Amino acid sequence: MLNKIRIISVVMLMTVMMAVLAGCGKKTLDGDWIIRSETDKSGIVLTREELEEKGVVETYHIEGETATYNCTLLGNDISFDLNVVDKGDGKYDFMVNDFVFQSVTFKGDIFSYIAGEGDDAVVFVFERVEK
After folding, report:
1. pLDDT tens digits, residue range 5-52?
2. Which of 1, 10, 37, 101 lies at 20 to 30 Å from 80 by C-alpha?
């Protein structure tokens, strides 16, 4: 009986330790990202599939303080590098020289930003590409 209690205690302790260690890994913005959706001010959502049907594909590749933005728009490829500035609390600025290209909110496997203002504002949501 005492051995069963010890075994159960050891298994429970190991389970708790594994859960704690698994929680220690902080996800970073590093990796490959692809557009998930665009939502305009009126609430109309375009999914990645709908955007691709229209000839629009947007991706980011991020490593540390550098990001590469790639966009295919109606057969035209656009690509440029950005500086990534960590503002804290999951907030980042993607910079072109001293100009803020986008201010990004990051959480887990999603980041988003708002482009435009007022009635022209569009929310872009990107998801991590799993390898």
Report:
1. 454 443 343 443 443 333 444 688 999 999 999 999 999 999 999 999
2. 37
